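Dock magnesium ion; give full complex structure.
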Amino acid sequence: MLASKMYCPTLREIPAGAEVVSHQYMLKAGMIRKNSSGVYTLLPMGWRVVKKIEAIIREEMENAGAQELMMPIVQPAEIWRESGRWDVYGEEMFKLKDRHGNEYCLAPTHEELITTLVRNELRSYKQLPVNLYQIQNKYRDEIRPRFGLMRGREFIMEDGYSFDADEEGLKKNYELMYNAYVRVFDRCGLDYRPVQADSGQIGGSRTHEFMALAASGEADVVHCTKCDFAANVEKVEPHALEIADEEMAEMALIETRDCKTIEDLHKLMNMPAEKTLKSVAFNVDGKLVLCVVRGDHEVNDVAVQKFVGGMNIEAADEELLRANGLVPGYMSPIGSEKRDKEKFIIIVDKTAMQVKNGVTGANKDGYHYKNVNPVRDFKNVRIETIRLINADDVCPVCGAPIKIVQGIEVGQVFELGTKYSKALGATFLDKNGKAQPFVMGCYGIGVTRTMAAAIEQSHDENGIIWPVSIAPYEVDIVPINEDAAMMAIAGEIYARLRGANIDTMLDDRKERAGVKFNDADLIGYPLRITIGKKTLQEGTIEIKVRKTGQVVTVLKEETVSQCQALLSKLR
Ligand code: ATP
Ligand code: MG
């Protein structure tokens, strides 16, 4: 490609509002442009990266025996009602009507469509297993679209679905897909970890998330420093902690005006956080769920939802709290003994339950109770582990110290089982001629998110440092001026590199060398070739490796072999 012809509008400044590096550099390097919140155009330079990631995915999917197809994005409400997810998805689903008033959605995922597809076509166990995938846009009206391509409302996903006759078949396909995803992310040059995860509202049993490790990641990943245990923190049930026993003192009301946060309370009472009891309230499908953990712990809302069931979990608003006699800022289970337990559930974390002579809200403006002993003072409550694991905990498998790091979820694999085949009546005839629901798995990679994750992991103050496998171009040739002889050599080298199947850019723009060098660093080509005076005088060129800064001077005749050698070292 000739830079003079490329539609790649680089910017001098980072546009305001771009918070993370990948978003900043993709805008600055002319790879994406925002259209509306969470919706972007992929410009030619960015689109090349997407295409390279997709090519890797396609190769690995085909190697694993999956077949590509293309399903509709616009889907009738009926199939979503049949599976029960029309309402579950709620606000996150883009819904629309046609001219006849029929309801549709823009697909956030494709379990429903693919299951209704095969239910009319796959009839016998002899036709199984079947493993299908596609790569296309997905639509999710995220509450907080942000970080550019990382959390978009329109984004590109590879999504795959497997159909088996039994659990054993599913296990095989799951492992095939898991391993294919390992190869995809290896080949994309990511530093990642597959971690155990929670299947959430999609349902099913075993699931792993592929987490690209990066400080900007929105997920917390816990891993052991000794064994190979690694999981999304939401999935982990931390060990119960031992708390020293104490004689229970008499509970008493204390005035704690202007003391609405747990930190204020610690200061006022001069008391360690583990002696306080924090109450967090959720609205789960209209039910009030009050959760109590120790002041130094956080509530795991995924665990809460697992215990309560229900589809939507969100913070309870003040109206719901007051209607149930709870006073924001001063909440606790005390005083709610006579509630309707169907509509108002109280769950106390196991460790919080052991607190002795602690402090908690009195459900009265400006007051707390001291000497609270949940074992004695909390009535009619459910006791479960609902706290998140934290860095002070130990590995739930081997007891060694753990670490918690941030990750970007770039992919996930699920053993779905029969949830969708049963709901949608998708069956086949088994060996005995009996109708059985398909045993399904589903698998997804965030293609555009993977692109963003690669930048989060690989950049410096000058710009992106692409892994060779997904770089828009592998080599950028920069003649330092428009001298005819220099341009002729540049053109020759360009032709030879392309002849050797190396993706090459020739920066033939009428710009100063400095501008071209800056753009080369910003866009992040793995290798940059400089053609300058020495090329004319001595017949040599310079190759600069973006990642290491290393510069090698070689005879221009050796350009191709030297580039091949350097690129293969970088792979
Ligand atoms: P998240 O928890 O980050 O919202 P998810 O678990 O809902 O993601 P999945 O349904 O597992 O997402 O979708 C498969 C993959 O699609 C994810 O692993 C992620 O890489 C990608 N993905 C999901 N939502 C988005 C989004 N809003 N923007 C970009 N990529 C996304
Ligand atoms: Mg996921």
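Observed: The chain has 17 helices and 31 strands.
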